[in-house]
Amino acid sequence: MWIWLGGIGLFAALLLAAVLISNVHVHFTFRKHKSDDYARINVRLLYGIVRINYEIPSIVFRNMKEGFLVKTEQHVNHKHGEAEGHERVNKRKVQKWAKEVKIMMRATDALKIWVQQTLSRVHMTQLSWSTRIGIGDAAHTAILTGWVWSIKSIIIGFLSYQIQFKRPPMLEVVPVWEDEMEFQTELNCRMRIRITAVMLAGVRLMTRVFEVDGGWRMWLRILREQRRRHKQKLKNSKVERGQTQ
Description:
The protein has 245 residues and is of the alpha+beta class. 47% of the residues lie in helices and 37% in strands.
Protein backbone atom coordinates (compact mmCIF):
# COMPACT_ATOMS: atom_id res chain seq x y z
CA MET A 1 0.00 0.00 0.00
CA TRP A 2 2.67 2.48 1.06
CA ILE A 3 4.81 1.49 -1.92
CA TRP A 4 1.95 2.35 -4.30
CA LEU A 5 1.29 5.66 -2.57
CA GLY A 6 5.00 6.47 -2.66
CA GLY A 7 5.19 5.62 -6.36
CA ILE A 8 2.18 7.80 -7.15
CA GLY A 9 3.64 10.65 -5.09
CA LEU A 10 7.02 10.33 -6.82
CA PHE A 11 5.36 10.30 -10.25
CA ALA A 12 3.30 13.40 -9.37
CA ALA A 13 6.42 15.20 -8.12
CA LEU A 14 8.37 14.34 -11.29
CA LEU A 15 5.44 15.44 -13.44
CA LEU A 16 5.19 18.76 -11.58
CA ALA A 17 8.94 19.30 -11.89
CA ALA A 18 8.78 18.59 -15.63
CA VAL A 19 6.02 21.17 -16.02
CA LEU A 20 7.86 23.81 -13.99
CA ILE A 21 11.13 23.50 -15.92
CA SER A 22 9.37 23.57 -19.30
CA ASN A 23 9.31 26.64 -21.54
CA VAL A 24 6.66 28.66 -23.30
CA HIS A 25 7.81 29.09 -26.91
CA VAL A 26 6.54 31.99 -29.03
CA HIS A 27 7.16 32.26 -32.77
CA PHE A 28 6.16 35.53 -34.45
CA THR A 29 6.20 36.09 -38.21
CA PHE A 30 5.27 39.21 -40.16
CA ARG A 31 5.50 39.74 -43.93
CA LYS A 32 4.57 42.68 -46.11
CA HIS A 33 4.96 43.05 -49.86
CA LYS A 34 3.14 46.00 -51.38
CA SER A 35 -0.54 45.49 -50.46
CA ASP A 36 -0.10 41.89 -49.22
CA ASP A 37 0.21 41.55 -45.45
CA TYR A 38 0.46 38.50 -43.23
CA ALA A 39 1.18 37.97 -39.54
CA ARG A 40 1.19 34.89 -37.32
CA ILE A 41 1.81 34.16 -33.65
CA ASN A 42 2.40 30.55 -32.66
CA VAL A 43 2.56 29.62 -28.97
CA ARG A 44 3.71 26.20 -27.71
CA LEU A 45 3.72 25.09 -24.10
CA LEU A 46 3.89 21.89 -22.07
CA TYR A 47 6.40 20.39 -24.52
CA GLY A 48 4.15 21.07 -27.51
CA ILE A 49 1.05 19.39 -26.07
CA VAL A 50 -0.77 22.74 -26.17
CA ARG A 51 -0.45 24.77 -29.36
CA ILE A 52 -2.15 28.10 -30.02
CA ASN A 53 -1.92 29.56 -33.52
CA TYR A 54 -3.13 33.12 -34.14
CA GLU A 55 -3.05 34.31 -37.75
CA ILE A 56 -3.75 37.64 -39.43
CA PRO A 57 -4.02 36.76 -43.14
CA SER A 58 -5.31 40.15 -44.23
CA ILE A 59 -4.74 43.78 -43.19
CA VAL A 60 -6.71 46.22 -45.35
CA PHE A 61 -6.45 50.00 -45.02
CA ARG A 62 -9.86 51.58 -45.63
CA ASN A 63 -9.34 55.30 -45.08
CA MET A 64 -8.19 57.72 -42.38
CA LYS A 65 -11.56 57.55 -40.59
CA GLU A 66 -12.22 53.79 -40.73
CA GLY A 67 -8.57 52.80 -40.25
CA PHE A 68 -7.47 49.20 -40.81
CA LEU A 69 -9.70 46.15 -41.22
CA VAL A 70 -7.85 43.17 -39.72
CA LYS A 71 -8.97 39.60 -40.42
CA THR A 72 -8.01 37.11 -37.70
CA GLU A 73 -7.98 33.32 -37.34
CA GLN A 74 -7.31 31.46 -34.11
CA HIS A 75 -6.66 27.72 -33.70
CA VAL A 76 -5.94 25.72 -30.55
CA ASN A 77 -4.11 22.42 -31.14
CA HIS A 78 -5.12 22.81 -34.82
CA LYS A 79 -8.50 21.23 -34.06
CA HIS A 80 -10.35 22.69 -31.12
CA GLY A 81 -11.37 26.28 -30.43
CA GLU A 82 -11.14 27.53 -34.00
CA ALA A 83 -12.37 31.10 -34.37
CA GLU A 84 -12.41 33.65 -37.15
CA GLY A 85 -13.26 37.31 -37.04
CA HIS A 86 -12.67 40.82 -38.25
CA GLU A 87 -11.48 43.73 -36.17
CA ARG A 88 -11.35 47.39 -37.14
CA VAL A 89 -8.34 49.32 -35.89
CA ASN A 90 -8.88 53.06 -36.11
CA LYS A 91 -8.14 56.18 -34.11
CA ARG A 92 -11.05 55.52 -31.74
CA LYS A 93 -9.87 51.97 -31.02
CA VAL A 94 -6.28 53.12 -30.34
CA GLN A 95 -7.54 55.81 -27.97
CA LYS A 96 -9.60 53.18 -26.14
CA TRP A 97 -6.55 50.93 -25.78
CA ALA A 98 -4.50 53.86 -24.47
CA LYS A 99 -7.22 54.63 -21.92
CA GLU A 100 -7.23 51.01 -20.71
CA VAL A 101 -3.44 51.06 -20.36
CA LYS A 102 -3.67 54.22 -18.22
CA ILE A 103 -6.30 52.54 -16.03
CA MET A 104 -4.07 49.47 -15.59
CA MET A 105 -1.14 51.70 -14.63
CA ARG A 106 -3.27 53.46 -12.01
CA ALA A 107 -4.58 50.11 -10.74
CA THR A 108 -1.13 48.53 -10.38
CA ASP A 109 1.78 49.55 -8.21
CA ALA A 110 4.83 50.21 -10.43
CA LEU A 111 3.46 48.42 -13.51
CA LYS A 112 6.42 49.55 -15.63
CA ILE A 113 8.87 47.91 -13.25
CA TRP A 114 6.82 44.68 -13.38
CA VAL A 115 6.93 44.73 -17.19
CA GLN A 116 10.70 45.24 -17.18
CA GLN A 117 11.20 42.42 -14.66
CA THR A 118 9.06 40.06 -16.75
CA LEU A 119 10.76 40.95 -20.03
CA SER A 120 14.17 40.33 -18.46
CA ARG A 121 13.18 36.64 -18.19
CA VAL A 122 12.45 36.38 -21.91
CA HIS A 123 15.11 34.77 -24.13
CA MET A 124 15.23 35.77 -27.80
CA THR A 125 16.52 32.66 -29.56
CA GLN A 126 16.19 33.98 -33.11
CA LEU A 127 15.53 37.32 -34.75
CA SER A 128 15.84 38.07 -38.45
CA TRP A 129 14.52 41.19 -40.16
CA SER A 130 15.04 41.81 -43.86
CA THR A 131 13.77 44.74 -45.92
CA ARG A 132 13.87 45.60 -49.62
CA ILE A 133 13.13 49.22 -50.38
CA GLY A 134 13.24 51.58 -53.34
CA ILE A 135 11.39 54.75 -54.38
CA GLY A 136 12.45 55.08 -58.01
CA ASP A 137 15.25 57.58 -57.40
CA ALA A 138 18.78 56.40 -56.61
CA ALA A 139 19.75 59.30 -54.32
CA HIS A 140 16.50 59.23 -52.34
CA THR A 141 16.64 55.44 -52.12
CA ALA A 142 20.15 55.62 -50.63
CA ILE A 143 19.00 58.17 -48.01
CA LEU A 144 15.92 56.12 -47.17
CA THR A 145 18.04 52.98 -46.81
CA GLY A 146 20.18 54.74 -44.21
CA TRP A 147 17.08 55.83 -42.30
CA VAL A 148 15.73 52.28 -42.25
CA TRP A 149 19.06 50.99 -40.96
CA SER A 150 18.97 53.61 -38.20
CA ILE A 151 15.39 52.74 -37.19
CA LYS A 152 16.19 49.04 -37.02
CA SER A 153 19.32 49.68 -34.98
CA ILE A 154 17.38 51.83 -32.49
CA ILE A 155 14.66 49.17 -32.10
CA ILE A 156 17.17 46.34 -31.62
CA GLY A 157 19.22 48.45 -29.23
CA PHE A 158 16.12 49.12 -27.12
CA LEU A 159 15.14 45.43 -27.09
CA SER A 160 18.65 44.38 -26.07
CA TYR A 161 18.18 46.30 -22.79
CA GLN A 162 14.79 44.62 -22.14
CA ILE A 163 15.25 40.95 -23.09
CA GLN A 164 18.12 38.46 -23.41
CA PHE A 165 19.42 37.72 -26.91
CA LYS A 166 20.81 34.19 -27.24
CA ARG A 167 22.01 34.92 -30.80
CA PRO A 168 22.97 38.15 -32.55
CA PRO A 169 20.03 39.50 -34.59
CA MET A 170 20.25 39.20 -38.38
CA LEU A 171 19.34 42.52 -40.01
CA GLU A 172 19.28 43.28 -43.71
CA VAL A 173 18.28 46.34 -45.75
CA VAL A 174 18.54 45.94 -49.51
CA PRO A 175 18.15 49.04 -51.69
CA VAL A 176 16.25 48.52 -54.95
CA TRP A 177 17.61 50.73 -57.73
CA GLU A 178 14.79 50.14 -60.19
CA ASP A 179 12.51 52.91 -61.42
CA GLU A 180 9.41 51.50 -59.73
CA MET A 181 8.65 51.85 -56.02
CA GLU A 182 9.32 48.73 -53.98
CA PHE A 183 8.78 47.89 -50.32
CA GLN A 184 9.06 44.39 -48.90
CA THR A 185 9.83 43.40 -45.34
CA GLU A 186 9.85 40.17 -43.36
CA LEU A 187 10.28 39.83 -39.61
CA ASN A 188 10.83 36.45 -37.97
CA CYS A 189 11.54 35.99 -34.26
CA ARG A 190 11.44 33.17 -31.72
CA MET A 191 11.28 33.66 -27.95
CA ARG A 192 11.00 31.47 -24.90
CA ILE A 193 10.31 31.92 -21.21
CA ARG A 194 10.13 29.44 -18.33
CA ILE A 195 6.67 28.55 -17.04
CA THR A 196 8.00 29.25 -13.53
CA ALA A 197 8.86 32.80 -14.66
CA VAL A 198 5.33 33.22 -16.05
CA MET A 199 3.79 31.97 -12.79
CA LEU A 200 6.00 34.25 -10.67
CA ALA A 201 5.13 37.18 -12.92
CA GLY A 202 1.45 36.46 -12.36
CA VAL A 203 1.90 36.33 -8.58
CA ARG A 204 3.89 39.59 -8.60
CA LEU A 205 1.21 41.27 -10.74
CA MET A 206 -1.58 40.22 -8.37
CA THR A 207 0.46 41.45 -5.41
CA ARG A 208 1.01 44.84 -7.05
CA VAL A 209 -2.69 45.11 -7.96
CA PHE A 210 -3.85 44.41 -4.39
CA GLU A 211 -1.39 47.00 -3.07
CA VAL A 212 -3.46 49.71 -4.80
CA ASP A 213 -6.76 50.66 -3.19
CA GLY A 214 -9.52 49.46 -5.55
CA GLY A 215 -6.99 48.20 -8.08
CA TRP A 216 -8.52 44.74 -8.42
CA ARG A 217 -11.93 46.31 -9.19
CA MET A 218 -10.47 48.32 -12.07
CA TRP A 219 -8.71 45.23 -13.46
CA LEU A 220 -11.91 43.20 -13.11
CA ARG A 221 -13.84 45.86 -15.03
CA ILE A 222 -11.31 45.79 -17.87
CA LEU A 223 -11.29 41.97 -18.00
CA ARG A 224 -15.08 41.87 -18.13
CA GLU A 225 -15.10 44.36 -20.98
CA GLN A 226 -12.49 42.33 -22.88
CA ARG A 227 -14.56 39.15 -22.37
CA ARG A 228 -17.69 40.91 -23.61
CA ARG A 229 -15.88 42.07 -26.76
CA HIS A 230 -14.52 38.58 -27.37
CA LYS A 231 -17.98 37.04 -27.09
CA GLN A 232 -19.40 39.69 -29.42
CA LYS A 233 -16.62 39.02 -31.93
CA LEU A 234 -17.34 35.28 -31.86
CA LYS A 235 -21.05 35.94 -32.28
CA ASN A 236 -20.44 38.22 -35.27
CA SER A 237 -18.12 35.67 -36.90
CA LYS A 238 -20.76 32.92 -36.52
CA VAL A 239 -23.39 35.18 -38.08
CA GLU A 240 -21.07 35.98 -41.00
CA ARG A 241 -20.30 32.29 -41.59
CA GLY A 242 -24.03 31.50 -41.48
CA GLN A 243 -24.74 34.15 -44.10
CA THR A 244 -22.04 32.86 -46.44
CA GLN A 245 -23.22 29.24 -46.27
